[in-house]
Automatic annotation (TrEMBL):
<dbReference type="Pfam" id="PF01712">
    <property type="entry name" value="dNK"/>
</dbReference>
<keyword id="KW-0067">ATP-binding</keyword>
<dbReference type="GO" id="GO:0004138">
    <property type="term" value="F:deoxyguanosine kinase activity"/>
</dbReference>
<feature type="binding site">
    <location>
        <begin position="137"/>
        <end position="141"/>
    </location>
    <ligand>
        <name>ATP</name>
    </ligand>
</feature>
<keyword id="KW-0808">Transferase</keyword>
<feature type="domain" description="Deoxynucleoside kinase">
    <location>
        <begin position="7"/>
        <end position="205"/>
    </location>
</feature>
<dbReference type="GO" id="GO:0005737">
    <property type="term" value="C:cytoplasm"/>
</dbReference>
<dbReference type="GO" id="GO:0005524">
    <property type="term" value="F:ATP binding"/>
</dbReference>
<feature type="binding site">
    <location>
        <begin position="10"/>
        <end position="18"/>
    </location>
    <ligand>
        <name>ATP</name>
    </ligand>
</feature>
<dbReference type="InterPro" id="IPR031314">
    <property type="entry name" value="DNK_dom"/>
</dbReference>
<protein>
    <submittedName>
        <fullName>Deoxyguanosine kinase</fullName>
        <ecNumber>2.7.1.113</ecNumber>
    </submittedName>
</protein>
<feature type="binding site">
    <location>
        <begin position="185"/>
        <end position="187"/>
    </location>
    <ligand>
        <name>ATP</name>
    </ligand>
</feature>
<dbReference type="InterPro" id="IPR027417">
    <property type="entry name" value="P-loop_NTPase"/>
</dbReference>
<keyword id="KW-0418">Kinase</keyword>
<keyword id="KW-0547">Nucleotide-binding</keyword>
<dbReference type="InterPro" id="IPR002624">
    <property type="entry name" value="DCK/DGK"/>
</dbReference>
<comment type="similarity">
    <text>Belongs to the DCK/DGK family.</text>
</comment>
Length: 215
């Protein structure tokens, strides 16, 4: 049976990692978590976006590229299904917001080269929420590097995600996207909210499995 590759996406603070962990446990999928805290440019980036954006984005791109290579070789290639708390396309969402007109074309060329043969998700779980909800959740998790998070940057990021996902669905109708508005869904603290999402994810995964059997 062909493996399933599920990715969870959405703006900072929406709960991608928590939901990915829950999906992994519920459906017995291998879990891939993105590397965030090891990025040496993150603290500087939040203090001065224009100064540190290129270094930050290149670090993330190279690390995610290596992670996805390992996932393909060690799991997907062996028929083992995976859920990740990011999709590599997020790199372009952030880069278009943070990089200047001189660095963005260079970055996108490198991105296209590196990602041309990487595994693509069969199912994307897209989480979104209002700026108030996201800022509250970011504050609650108390990461030192996020204390100086700019509200305007976050508002723009929410809009960037929404625009990108709408365009993505038009360009890739073959990829299933499940969208959840998380202002009224607290899947971390409320079991009934977590069950609501997990049931829909399970159904979508089962549909994808059946589709793979006949492809």
């Amino acid at each position: 049976m062909k493996p399933i590759f599920v990715t969870v996406e959405g703006p900072i603070g929406v709960g991608k990692t928590s939901l990915s962990q829950a999906i992994s446990q519920e459906l017995q999928l291998e879990l891939l978590l993105e590397i965030v805290d090891e990025n040496p440019f993150l603290s500087q980036f939040y203090q001065n976006i224009s100064e540190w954006s290129f270094q930050l984005e290149m670090f993330f791109l190279c690390n995610r590229y290596k992670q996805l290579q390992d996932i393909e070789n060690n799991y997907l290639h062996k028929g083992i299904s995976v859920v990740a708390d990011y999709n590599i396309f997020k790199n372009t969402i952030f880069a278009r917001r943070t990089l200047n007109s001189r660095n963005l074309p260079k970055y996108l060329k490198i991105y296209d080269i590196l990602t041309s043969d990487l595994p693509q998700a069969n199912l994307i779980v897209y989480l979104t929420a209002s700026i108030d909800t996201l800022m509250q959740r970011i504050a609650k998790r108390g990461r030192e590097m996020e204390k100086n998070m700019d509200v305007t940057y976050m508002e723009n990021l929410i809009a960037d995600y929404e625009r990108f996902m709408q365009e993505f669905q038009l360009r890739h109708p073959e990829t299933t996207v499940l969208k959840f508005q998380c202002d009224d869904l607290d899947f971390v603290h409320k079991p009934e909210d977590r069950r609501f999402i997990l049931d829909q994810v399970r159904n979508a995964v089962q549909t994808q499995v059946e589709k793979n059997e006949y492809s």
